[in-house]
Amino acid sequence: MTPVLYRATFLHTPESPFTHPGALRVHEDGGLLVSGGVIQASGDFAALHAAHPEVPVADRRGGLLLPGFIDTHVHLPQVRVIGGLGLPLLAWLEECALPEEARLANPTYARAVAQDFLAGLLGAGTTTALVFGSHFASAVDVFFEEAARVGLRAVAGQVVSDRLLRDELHTTPERAYAEGKALIERWHGVGRALYAVTPRFSLSASEGILAACAALMTEFPDVRFTSHINENVREVEVVRGLFPGARDYLDTYERAGLVSHRGVLAHNLHPSDRELGVLAERGCAVAHCPCSNSALGSGFFPLRRHLAAGVQVALGSDVGGGTGFSLLKEGLQAHFMQNLMGEAGVLLSPAHLLYLATRAGAQALGLEAQVGSFEPGQQFDAVHLQPLPGTPLDAVFRHAASPERALAAAFATGTPADIAGVWIGGQPVQARVQGRL
Ligand code: GUN
Ligand code: ZN
User: Fold this and answer.
1) Pocket of ligand 1, beta carbon within 6 A
2) Share of residues in the chain with pLDDT > 70 (%)
3) Which ligand has an atom closest to residue 200 CA?
4) Of the chain's two ends, which shows fewer C-beta atoms within 10 Å, N or C?
């Protein structure tokens, strides 16, 4: 790939605004020198152009260039059931999610779903995603094929369960281990793909299946781990009954040896101080999915307590409990919900929201050396927000007092239709998808 000098207003958060005031870096007339898909230099356009006059310039002025979004919790088989509003978690699973998930037994159906799913992610500017796959190994295989075709950085795995869902979705510890091992050997570290060992949640996982997951984690020391935790009060109660010896929900994973820096647990709306302490100590991250939490009435996320304990938090869309793929919308909903929590909440600035949608996700996935910011050495994964004339965001962008105010407006009113370009590893992967998902 020949080098390119991108000229744009760009913003990024190489450090956490939760611990570093002034972490938002803003370059109003910025330059990013990209070669071989990697950012070689990052700064002001004029200086970079003077130093590299021979490099062709890609002029992306007139919008905002941001690091590609990183979705740390999203379900492949649920793209076609987004919008099942008004049900609590366990009823929603039974009525909306699981009947659709059973259809992915058919690989032709699974491929069509994977294509819809990937169009949704890329259209929303998501360049890296931790994907809850399917219960069917064949569907996970198809997903990795399709993800490689479009270039997404996918961290994904087969979802495993052996009770309390529906028969078609149940497996055994032996089969979970064997199918997981085969998928890891076929996909982990191939191109941009990584594997995540994925027991659905303790409610649907016996100790035997959690042990099979732990065996995979031990045998393959670089694969990731993901599951759900403390999402819904009824779910927490059922899990307590199923694991009478466990101290709390986290302990069901902890006793199996599954809680580590390689993990991301989704939701954690109802944690004890002990659980937060263990997550922080082990470096296990939490995916905050505010649209899902609102749609399923699951509760308010105790972000302040997570931050105080030192737990790594990032954003997830939780499609299809969540209401779409846009991490701009998740950022806005996180802001709303924290605001509504009063003293218990955290006032989230545009810098916080950008961090949660980008670098925080990279840190949660152990990918911070590769993606999440525009620092030199990072992959050029980027989203160009440039609204069409006549749209609300266009009006704000043209009159915004500063790039930071424009960023706030992007979270407040931006949609996938405002995304004019997406790059992964320096390759353009998506033009504007107006009105889609
Ligand atoms: N807990 C177990 N499975 C699911 C799921 O598919 N969505 C959500 N939001 N929570 C879960
Ligand atoms: Zn989920």
Assistant:
1) 75, 89, 93, 97, 200-201, 228, 231, 292, 318, 321
2) 98
3) 1
4) N
3-state secondary structure 331-371: HHHHHHHHHHCHHHCCCCCHHHHHHHHCHHHHHHCCCCCCC
What is the arithmetic mean of pLDDT over 226-249? 98
pLDDT at 435: 37
Q: Which long-range contacts (CB under 8 A, 24 or more apart) does 102-105 make?
A: 102/166, 102/168, 102/169, 103/77, 104/77, 104/134, 104/135, 104/136, 104/139, 105/136, 105/138, 105/139, 105/168
pLDDT score, position 208: 98
Q: Which two tokens stand for residue 152?
A: 């997404």
Q: Which two three-digit tokens encode residue 111?
A: 């491929």
pLDDT at 434: 38
| Residue 246 predicted with pLDDT over 50 | yes
In testing the pocket of ligand 1, which one of 201, 209, 292 has its CB within 8 Å of the most ligand atoms?
A: 201
Residues 45 and 65: their CA atoms lie apart, in Å, by 13
Contact 9, 61 (CB under 8 A): yes
pLDDT attached to residue 272? 98
Domains of the chain: 4-67+373-431 (2.30.40.10), 69-364 (3.20.20.140)
Q: How far apart are the first and last CA of the chain?
A: 32
- Chain segment 106-128, per-residue pLDDT in tens: 999 999 999 999 999 999 999 99
The number of beta carbons lying within 10 Å of the beta carbon of residue 26 is 16
